[in-house]
Amino acid sequence: MEEGRDYTPEEFEAMFASQEGSNRNEEVEQGEEEEEAGGSKPSGKVSYVWKYYEKVPVPNKPRHFRCVCTVCRDIKKIMKSYAWSIGTGFGSMSRHLRNDHGITASGVGSQTQTQLSGFMSEQAGGGKPFFYSQKNMIDHMATFVNLEELPFTYGESVNLENFNRLALQPSYSHVNRHTLKDRTMEQYKEQKKELIAYFANFDGRVALTSDTWTSKQNNPFMCVTVHWIDNDFFLQKRIIAFDIMEEKHTGYNIYLRLKKTLDKFNLTKKLFSISFDNASANTKCIDYVLQMDDILLNGDLVHVRCCAHIINLSAQEGLAFLAPLLEPIKTCINWTRNARSMKTQWKTLCDKHGLRNKQWGTDCATRWNSTYKLIKQALRYKNVLTEFYNSHQRDEDAMIDNSMWTIAANIYAKDKGESSSSSSVTTKSARFDDQLHSILFRRTQSSSSSTSTLATKELDDYLTHGVDTNDTDFNILLWWKARSIQFPLLSKIARDVLVVPASTVASESAFSAGGRVLDDKRSRLAPPTVKMCVCKRDWDLAKIRRQGAKEFDPLEADEIVATDASSGN
Fold it and tell me: Strands 271-276, 206-214: parallel, antiparallel or unpaired by DSSP?
């Protein structure tokens, strides 16, 4: 028996076409008769193997066949074939069935669940019978474990093995953590190659967000996330770097990291903008980026400062005026959490005022909306908080009075939305029109004069007709996609401009994922493994369009737990 060989469907059909149908059937029947006449073995078709193999006669070689695995043909679309002649055994074919498909001579209902005859799911099986494969199971488990941010030892769980064998698949066997990690790394490298090849052929511009983060293990990481709009006008995002950065975080070192990442993913000449926070090192990094080739508009649009960071700085300045009110509330919260006697007094006061025993959420300095929620909750308990706090204060000047609660009520009730003046909008619109002309000139400067003229006419036509946004379901990307033929050049520019992120939230989200990867159970993961887990999880979520799915929020979890505790659930 020779080793198996993989055939494509076309090769398989060609093998059939090389033989006349009648001659082929006669040769197979003749071979079976000769084998039975030998008396040493029963007919080949008596064995279970022939349920899953199809014989193809070898031209000019009587009694010799290529036996093609029909399971591979139906499931993998690539046929595994073995050379076989009448009178020989078929150990290689049976081992292939057992190792790759979980099929043994015992058949359905014993050690191996070879086929579910009623399984006709169009989504998973495509209407074909299901065949269990240990290799296929490991592939999917590697993806599942990484998506759910589970440790690699998950596959070694005895409880998981018992559950699978008793309820799902009798032939299931546990997966070693090294096997699971190695397969995850193989998948990561395969997906990385695909992403690099995709960007090599990408004809648009990309925007980056980047930031640095220090893990619980005091390891500094740098994250780079790329954003772009694809040819179908879908917004795309991928984490392309999550590397440990042990060198000093200077502007030049950050630039070197960015440049290395851009070169690796074929994006050096496709950069449109970089979104940073307001750290001085990031600003210095931009100075080096502006020296790169193929930067649009002399770099006027390259540096995007994180608006969330700017808003947070502004909000913290405003919240400083609320310190006389917020500090007593925070002090009361700490008392009710840490002192047992204080907890009893707090509960008594809540009962006295007919309120539930409030379990407070967490106020986070970098999430000013958490302070807003704290004020909202405190207003309902202002009488309890006032009595509780003042009862422990001897200095009357430090006590809470009604004027503080009046300020808090005004802050909570105030409408924060303010419309921009028409003159400001007009000024910004005119400046953006000038930038559009500049981008068009850059796009067409290497083209003929007729192309430049058509581009200018295209822009004038767009500015004349404008955009009708009266539709409540208006989608700017779908609008440009529908008019990509009318505005071929402008639609490409729109893909470059509209993708620019206003904040570094994408990087912060990656750091949250990194924190979950490097939890207490996996604190010893090597930096390359952390990078693999974070990047691959992001890429797998992108395939199923689940990157925007809401992650676990500990602040909201505190509120949920507190509500349940108060209601007695």
Answer: parallel
